[in-house]
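Exercise 7.
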Amino acid sequence: MSQSVDSTEGKGATPPAATAGLALFAASTRNYIPRIVASLGMGAVMAAYLSWVGAAAWMATVWAGLYVNHRLVGAMERSGPGETSRRLLRISHASSFISTVVQCVPVALLWMTGEPLAQAFGLMFAMIGCTYVLLQYYADLGQFRLFLAPYVVTMTVVAGKAAWDEGFGAAALIAIGAAAISMVNFLHYARQLLDRSRAALRKARAVAQEKELAAEAANRAKSAFLATMSHEIRTPLNGVLGMAQAMAAGKLSEVQRDRLSVIHRSGESLLAILNDLLD
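Solution. The predicted structure, written as tokens, is:
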């Protein structure tokens, strides 16, 4: 539900890290279809249980947030890594937090209607929002807590209203407590699992890069060895062939010429084999 952005800001951020963060932010903010569908669904429910005016105003606010983040992405891409990009990144965090707060408001309003279907839809919407926050911000605990806070406040309001309606009975308090513990348990261990998976992926990628570098080094060593062997073997062999040709130009008996011819043919055969092996 909220806008996604990887945490790469800071004075010490390297240009590659900032570029990667910008790419993730751009990919997230351009994922318009799920946000538009979710906002249309919530708008329809708000119109049915609250008012058309409120639904229209809420959807206009959500879509305005999408537009603002779209413009931020364009500005960040044009500015590239640097202080301007980091400043725009901080603005995008503020915009994302405001967008999260705006999307939590109808959840509480629908719960206050007392209509079971409206309340069920509101809870489902909140759960989907929490899941989006989990998937987008699990790698940064600070941002994860920040963007989860509006949902925590909203669910606290919902739980308080439910407990009030039930007269703060023991059964209601037990159910609310169990639901809270279950939700915290899910978010906590799901974030840890995602973080471990991310760490494992990074480790596997690093191992793959190391193996690739080792393979490249082995190929370079092989090429250097073949070049050295080619030079060290061909040089004396060419000398043998050259002397054989020089001797063939002189006065030789038939027996000597035949023996020299054998040397020359054998040398050429050996040179051909070396060419096949080393080239």
